[in-house]
Amino acid sequence: MGQKRKIDKVRASRDGHEFHEAWTVRKATQLLWPDADLTAIAVEGLSPDDQAGASAATVEVADLTFYYGRRPNFEDASRTTFAQFKYSIADQNKDFRASNAKKTVKKFGATYRSFKRKYGARAVEEKLDFQLVTNQPIADVLLQAIEATAAGTSTTGGTKEQAKQFQAAAGLSGKPLAAFARKLKVIGRSGSLPQMKDELASLLVDWSATSDSIAAARLGKLRELVRDKAGYAGTDRNLIRRTDVLAALQIGDPMDLLPCEAALVDVGKVLEREQLREAITRIDSTSKPLLIHASGGVGKTVFMDSLASQVAAKHEIVFFDCFGGGAYRSPEDARHLPKKGLIHIANTLAFRGLCDPMLPDSPDIHTLLSTFRRRLSQCLNTISRMTQGRKLAIFIDAIDNAVFAAGQYSEDCVPIKLLESLDTEPIAGVKLVVSCRTERKPKTYAPFDEFELCPFTRSETAAFLKARLESVTEVEVNVAQARSDGNPRVLDYLVKADRGLLDPSEINQDIELDNLIQQRITDALSLAIMQGYGEKDLSAFLAGLAVLPPPVPLDEYAAAHGMELAAIESFASDLNPLLERTNHGLMFRDEPTETLIHKRYATSRDALERVASNLLARQEASVYAARALPRLLHELDDGERLFALAFDDRIPSSISSTVGKRNIQYARLKAATLHAALKVDYSSLVRLLVELSTIAEVDQRGADYLLNHPDLVVAAE
Q1: Is pLDDT above 90 for 386?
Q2: What distances in angstroms separate CA 500 from CA 218, 467, 495, one per listed residue?
Q3: What angle do helix axes 535-547 and 591-600 make, rounded to 10 degrees?
Q4: What are phi and psi of 643, to 5 degrees?
Q5: Are 297 and 592 a contacting pair, CB within 8 Å?
Q6: Helix, strand or coil for residue 585?
Q7: pLDDT band at 263 (very low <50, low <70, confident <90, very high)
Q8: DSSP 190
Q9: FRET partner for 618 with CA separation of 20 to 30 A, picked from 96, 434, 603, 651?
């Protein structure tokens, strides 16, 4: 046998520091999880607020201190966790025992007593805990000893000896010892330094879905951040917050991590549909995606939500909303794009701690899908370890809206790409459930298991009414069923309207959903016309709502139509609940309303021309007009005005930054280029591409310069 290699203590110490640093970087990424309440991480000590009055032993014991809740100090935090690392090269394969933990446990025990004296036993019991992290495997007898100490039970043999050593190191006995033991978590076999480096590097490469050089640069900036916080520069500034991690990863807006917020309507008490059992059976019995389809107003979204809740016991659930309260038509939202939708779904799982996040960088659909599939596999591995046999179900609502938005600009559509990817190469344990209108089933080669959602049966109608009206009679149930034909949206109208609509004499007066919506619109139009506004102007107003990106700002939209803001507000109020007024403007409450207005008003070229002319006249005054006009001209197939707009120098005066002005210019050029390409207009296309390449070249030169001189980025921080 060869002589055992002597350990270089200096090099081992350096490796220990790097281990701490790499572990800290990994923990810092948890600050990106929006659902978690981790507020900040203090490096090498406590937060400045806590450190001022802390003992030397307490400051020394905290390699990292995690603060959860409102603020990074013990009094305001909901929970505070002290973490210390023990790294060993020589003993990395030896069991970690009480003797190895003696110094750390002693300091943890002193900190526990100190905090009890300073903050009181109740506060310490509620929100203080400890972690000891090592690269060694943890001896079973030590874990059993800590568990027995926490429970106050007796031990024998080796476990008893470990328990004695643990008690001696803690300097506690009786109930305080048990309480302290319950607060201590020992984490072992966290990996050698090379493993930690490789894990972290591949983690960020995997996150970014970009080249290794970019991932390496981001990793370097994160490591540098941790190093600064741990060093002299971090004196009284040793906190890492979410904004620090976002800056290091070069993410300007946290919303880029979850870009497609759902906007589901509150429908009150949800009725458990009779078809729910069958749908659950279909999910369990077939490997094909389940397509739930129905006509407008039948309640697809509510049914999807109910179905997701029912299968959550056996499946991890992600619910993706393609409609988004009409936001799917907004160019800033663009939730139909894979680079938005896939990242949102993956990060929904990531922020639950089930997989690594995806960073918003790569527009390449193949790279995105490949990275996304790895996230799904990673999630399945995680949840199956938690609960054997547990699966993943992805619910995607209103995929026909995503298909429509993608078709307008010949772009990729996330639900279709995902359906086709999982059809080509299924992932065992992943179930996809999607919904759309019956008449708008998507055209794709991926096969579905189709499930038609039917209107309410009479018993369902009775349950719906009884949950919303007092003393409902059988006659009223019969009238409601006959008039609505079981359509939940119509039933909701009958419930909220005059109860006389449920009189026996009304039983033969059918109500169609589209007619119901149109009546609301007609009533609102009549009131506006009585106030002196022309029918053509009002039709243009409605047409604009159907084609312009939501939310539509009331003040800018009123100015674009030459109408008083008060009149617009009144008109919007009269259309309630068909329209929803948010802090940012108007948007449709649901898909049936948007579909009807688009079909009956936005198909009028005259109305849309009036909207386009109004927006064109406000290119210098309105940011919204500048942002919305290119897409509208594309929808109008107006190549002449699109081309002219692409080279229009007018920019809203409120935009002062070069980046903001360039974004407006880029949006105009992009829309005109797309139109020219679709029309095979080579003469226009060449000029547009030259202009676009000029902008791209300027941006690329700047990016290349920074990549070649990364020290400038560091200096700029």
Answers
A1: no
A2: 66, 18, 10
A3: 130
A4: -65, -45
A5: yes
A6: strand
A7: confident
A8: -
A9: 603
C-beta separation of 630 from 668 below 8 A: yes
- Burial grade of 360 (CB within 10 A; 0-12, 13-18, 19 or more): buried
CA–CA distance, 265 with 527 (Å, rounded to integer) = 27
Task: Assess whether pLDDT exceeds 80 at residue 668.
Answer: yes
Across the strands, what pairs with 84? 132
Range in 47-56, 672-681, 706-715 with the lowest mean pLDDT: 706-715
Instruction: For residue 155, give the 3-state DSSP assignment.
Output: coil
Residues 409-467 pLDDT 10s: 788 999 999 999 999 999 999 999 999 999 888 888 778 899 999 999 999 999 988 88
Angle at 658 between CA 652 and CA 661, to 5 degrees: 35
- Distance between CA 714 and CA 224 in Å, rounded? 9
Q: Where are the alpha helices (DSSP H) in 120-211?
A: 121-127, 140-151, 157-170, 174-183, 193-208
Nearest-angstrom CA–CA distance, 129 and 38 = 14
Quick check: 703 pLDDT over 60?
A: no
In 417-460, which ranges are E strands? 430-437, 449-452
Cβ burial of 478 (10 Å; 0-12, 13-18, 19+) is middle
Q: Which amino acid is at 253?
A: D
* Residues facing 377 on adjacent strands: none
Residue 421, helix vs strand vs coil: helix
